[in-house]
Amino acid sequence: MGKGRLEAFSDGVLAILITIMVLELKVPRGGEFSSLRPLVPVFLSYVLSFIYLGIYWNNHHHMLHTVTRVSAAILWANLHLLFWLSLIPFVTGWMGENHFAAPPTALYGAILLMAAIAYWVLQRTILSSLGPHSRLAAAVGKDLKGKISPVLYALAIPSAFFSRWIAGGLYVLVAMMWLVPDRRIEAAYSDKA
Amino acid sequence: MGKGRLEAFSDGVLAILITIMVLELKVPRGGEFSSLRPLVPVFLSYVLSFIYLGIYWNNHHHMLHTVTRVSAAILWANLHLLFWLSLIPFVTGWMGENHFAAPPTALYGAILLMAAIAYWVLQRTILSSLGPHSRLAAAVGKDLKGKISPVLYALAIPSAFFSRWIAGGLYVLVAMMWLVPDRRIEAAYSDKA
Amino acid sequence: MGKGRLEAFSDGVLAILITIMVLELKVPRGGEFSSLRPLVPVFLSYVLSFIYLGIYWNNHHHMLHTVTRVSAAILWANLHLLFWLSLIPFVTGWMGENHFAAPPTALYGAILLMAAIAYWVLQRTILSSLGPHSRLAAAVGKDLKGKISPVLYALAIPSAFFSRWIAGGLYVLVAMMWLVPDRRIEAAYSDKA
Amino acid sequence: MGKGRLEAFSDGVLAILITIMVLELKVPRGGEFSSLRPLVPVFLSYVLSFIYLGIYWNNHHHMLHTVTRVSAAILWANLHLLFWLSLIPFVTGWMGENHFAAPPTALYGAILLMAAIAYWVLQRTILSSLGPHSRLAAAVGKDLKGKISPVLYALAIPSAFFSRWIAGGLYVLVAMMWLVPDRRIEAAYSDKA
User: Fold this and answer.
1) Hey, are the CB atoms on B72 and C58 less than 8 Å from each other?
2) How much is the ipTM here?
C-alpha cells in the first residue's frame, strides 16, 4: 500500500490541530487593549504548542520521506501518535487559562511525553519494516534529540509542582533544541558526550 | 473519473471528524486535577470513537486501494457513509456527557449500525463496478468481521437499557476485533465456524 | 498553472464546511430521548445542507475534471463560490434553530441562489478558457438543471413568507433533481419541454 | 525533499482558517431579519479577511509553483507565515464584534503587517535557495505591490486611533490592489512612479 493517504490524513489532522488551538483564544467582550491581557498566557501557550506541532509535522515529514510501503502496523502506530497530539489543544487551553498552574503544566508535559513515546514507537515500526541498512536507520542512529526530549519532559512533569518556570523553561528548551538547525546542535552534543 | 479527489475529500472529512471530537473535551474552569474528573467519561467516549473513526479510515483506505474508476453511484454511497460518520462526534459527546446513560448509549450503537450499513452499501457499489473476479471481491469474500459487527451493534442497542456495561462492552469488543491483526482473528473465527 | 492545488484547497474547504455544520447540533444537557426533540429541525436542516454541499462537491469535481490549466480568473471565481458556500453552515443553523421561520428560510434560499450564480460564473470562466469546442461545453450545453435551480431558489425566497412548507419543499425538490441520476431526469425534462 | 506535503499542509491550514472564521458569525437567537443587524460588522470583517486569506493562498500558490526542492529553512519560514495568518480569525472576530473600534482595528493591521513580513521572509528564503537567475526572482523583481502593502498597513495602524474609516479604507485598498489583475495595476504604478 502506498503512503500517499497516510501523509494526506496526517497532514489533515495536524493542520486541523494547529488551527483549532486558535479557537481557545476566545474573542474578548471589550474592545480595549486591556481586554487582551487575560489572553496573554493563553497566547503564550498557543505559541509553544504551535511550535511543537510544527516540529512534529516537520519530523513526521522527514521520517516518512524514505518510506515506500505502509503496513497495518505503521497505520496504527501513526494513529496512536495522532491521538496523543490531538490532546495538545485541550491541554494547551487548560494550561493557558489557568496561568501555567502546576497540574495543567504537569499534564502538558505528560501529553508531550506520551506523544514522544508514540513517535518513537512509530519510528521503530517503520525502521523494522525497512530493515537495518535503510537511510532512515542511518539518520536515526545519530538522533540524540529524540532520546533527550522524553527525559526532559519526564523531568518537567514533577518540576511543575515546584516552579512553573522550570517546567515551562524545559518545554521551551526542548522546542528550541528542535528548531535550531541540525548540524550545529549535533556537533554541540557530540562535544559534550 | 479518477479516485484521487474522492480519497482526498474522504480523508479531509475523516481527519476533521476525528479532530473536532476533541472540542467536546471542554477546557475546565479550575486548574486542579479534580476539575478533570467530570471529563473522564467524555474522554473515554472520545478514545472509543477515535478508534472507530481510525478503523473506518483504515478500512476505507484498503477498500479504495484496488478501485481505479469512480462512478456517480460510488461518490454518493461514499457521501452517505460520511454522513453517518459525521454524527459520531455529536453522539460521542452526548454519551460521554451523560455518563453512558441508556438513551445516548443506544443511539451511539444506532449510528454505528447505520455507518456499518452505509459501509456495506459502499462496498457492494464498488464490488458491482469491479465485476465478480476483482481482488476486492476475493478479499471481501472472507470478511466475517463485516458481517458480525452490525449484529453486535444491533444487540448493543437494546442491551443499553438493561446495562451500560453490556452495551459499552460490545462496542469495545467490535473495536478490538478490528484492531487485532487480521490473520489470527480470522483463523480463530474459522475454527469456531 | 496546474489544477492540483485548486482542487485540494476546494476539497479542504468543502470537507470542513460539511463537517463544521454538525457543530450546530449542540450536545443537549439531558440524557433522555426527549432532550433530542428541539434538535429535530436543526438535524433536518443539517441533512438538507449536507446533501447540497455534497452536490456542489460532486459537480465541482466533474467540472474541473476536463480543466488542465488554471488562470487567475478561475482561482478567484472559485474563491467566490467558496465564499457563498461558506455561509451555508451559518444559515443552516439559523434556519434549524428557528424551526424554519420565514426570514431564515428565505435567507437560506438567497444564499443558495448566490452560490448557484457563483457556480455559473465559475463555469463561464472555465468555459471561456477552454474555448467553444471543449468536452465541458458539450456537457454544459444540455445542462437544464443548472438553469432551473436558480429559478426555483428565486421562487422559494418570497414563498417562505407565505408557507415554510412551499419554500422547504422547493429546496428538497432541487436537491432531489440533482441526486437522481442524470439521464432519466434529463429525458423527463426534454419530454416536458 | 519534495514540496507536495508543504503545499498540502499549507492548503489545509489556509482552508481551515478561511472556514473557521465563519464560526465567529454566531447564529442569533431570534428568527427576524433584525436579529442579523448586530452581525453586520462581523460579516463585513469576515468578507475582508476571507479576501485577504484568499490573496495569501493565491500568492502562496504562485510563489511555490517554481520551487522544486524544499529546505528546512523554507519549512520553518512557511510555518512562521501560517502562524501569523492563524491569528486572523481571532482579530477579525475582535474587530467585527467591537464595530471596528480603534484597538482591534489597529491590531488587525499589525497582524496583517506581521503576515506581510513573514511572507517577505519566506520569499527571500525561497529566492536564496533558487539562486539569482530563477523565474521567481524575475517575477518578484517587479513586485511593487509586495513593497507597498506593508507601508499601507503601517500607516493604517496609527490612523485607526484617528478614524476607523481611514484604517478600514486602507485595508480595503490593499485588498483591491491585489484583486485587480496584475498588468493593469502595474502599468498604473509605473505611470505614477
Assistant:
1) yes
2) 0.88
